[in-house]
Every structure is written in C-alpha cells, then in structure tokens.
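We close this part of the discussion by returning to an individual protein. Part of our work consisted of pairing the sequence of a single chain with a tokenised description of its backbone. What the numbers capture is local backbone geometry rather than side-chain detail. The amino acid sequence and the backbone structure tokens for this protein are reproduced below.
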Amino acid sequence: MAYFRPPGPPPDPALVRSLTEQQQTLRQRVRAEPLAHEPRLIGGCDSSFPTPDTILSVFVVLKFPSLELVEKVYNYGPVNMPYVPGFLSFREAPNVIQAFAKLENKPDVIMVDGHGIAHPRRVGIAAHLGVLLDWPTFGVAKQKLTGTFQEPAIEKGSITPLLDAKTGELIGEVLRSKDKVLPLFVSPGHRCDQATATRLTLACLRGYKLPEPTRLADHWAEEFKKEVR
C-alpha cells in the first residue's frame, strides 16, 4: 500500500487505545490454515492517496495459474481517519472493502500489497481485511515492518524466515523475487498459512519484482487516478 504520512501533532492517546483494543480483537479472530482448494481466481489489491484527504483502492482479479486479467475495479473516497503509525489499515480498510464489493468475480484468495501477521500486533492490512471480509488473504510487502531476518541469497526464489525479535516466532518469509533486487516480505493474513502465501507469491512472478496481482493493482491505480483528477 502507498501510504500518505502527513506531519502533525502526536495522535490522540484515547484514539490509540481504542485502535489497539480493536486490533487485539481482530487478532483473536485471525486463523492460519491452508486453502480449502487450489485457487481458480486470485485477487490483488492496493491503495494510494491521490490527496491528503482522499484514498483510491483497486482490486484486480486474475485467473490462476495463467494470471490472465479477468476484472479490475476501484473505489475512490474520503479518508475518514487521521494518520496513526501502526494503524494504517484503519485508514484503508473501509475503502478497500467498498472496492471489493464492486467485483463481479470474487477471487478465491486475495494478495494484498502490505503485511499480514508480520506486524507489531500481528494485524497488518492483509490480516485486517481478511477478518473483516472473512476471506483468505495474505500480504506481500516491499519493506519490513517488524521482525529480524538474514538476507536471502541474491538469486530469484531464495527465501529466509522473518522472525519475531523477542520470541523467535515465524511471522513471515523474506523472498527474493528477482535476481539482485531487494526482497519482498510475505506473510499470511486470514484463512491462509505461510506455505500457501509463499507458494502463491512464487507462482505469480513473471519477471518483475512484484508478483502480478499486486503489480497490476498498482498499475491500474495509476490509470484510475487519471479518472478522478
């Protein structure tokens, strides 16, 4: 997800407490499990902020494993929550859900541009969305949010574990998606497990750093921005 990070005063402590409690409730509902069946359709979603006060969320749906584009939709609307570090999913999720509702072809699993459980409170945007939609989700992020890892080898397909710095718990995997490029951070969201998240990410690589579902979501976000300007 492409985040707008405006400068400003510290967030309201009461708001932070409320959001923390909500995340803890969401975390209790997150389930790690393999998919019930191999996906026929895989979704990709991404959000961006054309202005400080607006958000544009895109969904693409692709056939799997061919990755032929089936559908693309977007929703553009106001941002109703201030920027609070660690709680960005609350800014994005309502608009992403509205975009999802527009899909005529619902995917079997959603690849989200962002983190799943690889989050300080284990509820990144992919896990957050998965619980609210009750849909299989996983996250593919371009930057680490939390955890420790050893750099994977420089060849495409190299993988190392992403571990909680305190407990050593596996919270994701660090994947080299293309030779000699910075790695991606793959983690399960909801109703998905790590093995499935990593396997599907690898299956969706087509020579770019980003896997096709999120790469195309990002591409169409740029195109759709032209319609809302």
User: Anything to note?
Assistant: The helical segments are 13-29, 88-101, 125-133, 194-203, 212-228. The longest helix spans residues 13-29.
